Write a sequence for this structure.
């Protein structure tokens, strides 16, 4: 799957992923009113509003970017109807030719991680039939439980041609509390990065890159430089650009010399662009066009930094 | 919520939680055939079989134990129908007076963790209405992202009277890969335990225990002894008893002198007891009675160890 991602990055010239993390506050009132009119102010109504909003954004950006990253928590908070909207968002994006990174941050002991891996990247058997429960192309994975929590995901990557991004250094302010602590002179994230390299060796793609990538926050550029060297064959998914404070010039170290090796996420900065002063001229009704403009600006910002 | 758990432990004299982690292989063929007959060999059929199986187990053990722990991965692997079965299992158990620990191992950056916390322990607002999406009483939380990933859960514990168990030392074989590594002379799990104590101080219950507990595997009894001291006010949820190799005598250090402070989970050992030689006399049709017998045996094993 990493090979397809690289292909799509080359086609679009945009190492960008649009984070589909729709909070109700990002959705224009008219979209919500229409959904609540049909379904009431219910979980179903919220899910309907989210799905309508997502589809409009996706329609507006699908030709510009290789991938989207729905954050499942934003759907899970609306219960079963919310998770249906997650599932339908995944399907809709795949139909539009976008690769889908399920930002699920799952991870558990062996057999349980296997169930999560099947849910998001694999298939499940019921009697004589085989089903693809959610069908993302990539998923994010939490490494705290060690190899036997990650391995079932790596196995599914190999058997189903999928990919994962393992949390190595996250973008949040307190990520250093455990991740930066020194173990034999190296921060924990460095050790996790070494494991990512090791896990990844088992799941190499023809492109020369591994199906096992890593998450490293844009908010820690020096860490990005180190981890780029520690995991030379692992793509880095970079959150924290834009709303969390990362800028184009912070990103340069996450990329390889040929401009590959990283893909940068922006969520709020794109999907809620219509609420920002810079895109106010689009108005509330122009939220999807504002998202398109924000993607084009982000593309220019990153191109300038990595060229 | 920890106060209610303690009350129920005292009533039942059983510091035991039944893990509702139904793999299709644990479910008798007759139950599956009946469900597939109604819904086909579909995700809905699998979900129906799981729900029927869970209800029978719950009916058989509800008077013996204070709590159940459904592992959401086992439901998530059957997509939306599976997650509906999770949600219905939670509701059914609560109606039966059982406390429900959602074994979800969620954790993300601040606002996203907030969405997970709302999904599982809190409420969510849609227009003028407030909904309880899944409605567990407790949830398990992954600490890798540090304080700002855990804090939204602690806040919901305080505002909604709920509880959490933070992963400190997990029961799986490779848990030591990161969790046991020494940082300033202390294993990472020790540092996480210290944070659990700190987070927990903010959310003390009238019982004198904190709403912030910890997960420590039965498979590491010496670690249990240390962590019992590091987190004197935090209940320990102990997985790994039975199928994973932990026995009653391994558990003694997880408990306080008054026999409180820990609650021991068994999943397969109870719900799939009918497949074990010791309970074979119950037969396939007696799977729920076999589960009840297994709970009674576990209760005796633990009582013997901690008295």
């Amino acid at each position: 799957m990493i090979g397809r991602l690289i292909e799509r990055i080359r086609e679009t010239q945009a190492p960008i992923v649009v984070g589909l993390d729709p909070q109700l506050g990002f959705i224009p009132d008219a979209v919500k009113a229409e959904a609540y009119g049909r379904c009431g102010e219910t979980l179903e109504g919220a899910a309907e509003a989210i799905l309508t909003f997502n589809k409009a954004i996706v329609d507006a950006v699908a030709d510009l970017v290789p991938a989207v990253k729905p954050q499942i928590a934003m759907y899970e908070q609306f219960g079963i109807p919310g998770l249906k909207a997650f599932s339908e968002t995944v399907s809709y994006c795949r139909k539009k030719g976008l690769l889908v990174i399920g930002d699920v941050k799952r991870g558990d002991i062996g057999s349980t991680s296997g169930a999560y891996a099947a849910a998001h990247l694999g298939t499940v058997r019921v009697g004589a039939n085989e089903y693809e429960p959610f069908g993302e192309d990539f998923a994010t994975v939490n490494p705290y439980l060690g190899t036997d929590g990650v391995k079932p995901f790596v196995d599914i990557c190999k058997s189903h041609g999928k990919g994962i991004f393992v949390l190595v250094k996250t973008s949040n302010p307190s990520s250093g509390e455990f991740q930066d602590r020194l173990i034999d002179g190296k921060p924990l994230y460095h050790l996790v990065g070494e494991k990512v390299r090791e896990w990844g060796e088992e799941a190499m793609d023809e492109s020369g890159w591994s199906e096992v990538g890593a998450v490293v926050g844009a908010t820690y550029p020096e860490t990005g430089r180190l981890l780029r060297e520690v995991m030379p064959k692992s793509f880095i998914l970079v959150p924290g650009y834009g709303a969390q404070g990362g800028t184009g010039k912070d990103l340069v170290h996450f990329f390889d010399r040929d401009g590959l090796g990283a893909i940068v996420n922006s969520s709020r900065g794109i999907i809620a662009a219509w609420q920002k002063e810079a895109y106010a001229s689009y108005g509330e009704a122009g939220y999807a066009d504002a998202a398109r403009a924000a993607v084009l600006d982000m593309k220019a910002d990153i191109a300038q930094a990595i060229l």
Observations:
- Chain B has a mean pLDDT of 96.
- Chain B has twelve helices and twelve strands.
- The longest strand of chain B covers residues 99-106.
- Chain B touches chain A through 70 residues (CB under 8 Å).
